Amino acid sequence: MYDSVTIDDLELHEGMNGVHLRAVGYELRPKQMRPNVWVYEAGETSTKHRHQEQEELYHVLSGQFEMDFFDDEEMKEESLELEAGDVVVVSPDQLRQLRCLEDGEVFVVGAPNAKDDGVVVD
Predict the structure, then answer these.
(1) pTM of the entire structure?
(2) How many Cβ atoms from other residues are within 10 Å of residue 36's Cβ?
(3) pLDDT score of 122 more than 80
(4) How far apart are CA 100 and CA 88, in angstroms?
(5) Is Metal-binding there in the keyword field (predicted)?
(6) Rounded Cα distance, 68 and 75, in Å
(7) Mean pLDDT of 14-37
(8) For the chain, does the N or the C end have fewer beta carbons within 10 angstroms?
């Protein structure tokens, strides 16, 4: 059995930090993962966060981004520049924040499908 959807047909919803998303997971209801397409304007950022158990895969569909990685004291350790076609997988315990440099979209898949798994750091 399978389900499918066209991303452009999904309604845009306001997500965290004012960033918009297309709720792929809400539409398709997968049991093992949480997929979404996040739609950013230049200058917008995701929350600085980690997860309790969810590993995340980020696939940049368009635009340019920078992903910052932080140590346990919340000091920036490293930045990774990302553009269309780039894919990165981040472990649950890695503190990270995505920053949009040029308007774009990022397909994010978290697994396992753990509701309210994110730990946001201010």
Answers:
(1) 0.91
(2) 19
(3) no
(4) 15
(5) yes
(6) 10
(7) 91
(8) N
In sequence order, the 6+-apart residues with CB closer than 8 A to the CB of 69 are 76, 77, 78, 79, 80, 90, 94, 95, 96
Q: Confirm if 93 and 40 have CB atoms less than 8 A apart.
A: no
Q: Which two tokens stand for residue 122?
A: 């201010």
Q: Which residue spans within 43-115 are E strands per DSSP?
A: 48-51, 55-70, 76-83, 87-90, 95-111
Structure tokens at 40: 């950013």
Q: What Cα–Cα distance (Å) separates residue 102 from each residue in 31, 51, 69, 75, 108?
A: 33, 26, 19, 24, 18
Q: Mean of the pLDDT values across residues 29-43? A: 95
Q: How far is CA 69 from the centre of its chain?
A: 14
| CA gap 117, 42 in Å, rounded | 27
Residue-level pLDDT at 116 = 82
Burial readout 58-82 (b: 16 or more C-beta within 10 A, e: otherwise): bbbeebbbebbebeeeeeeeeeeeb
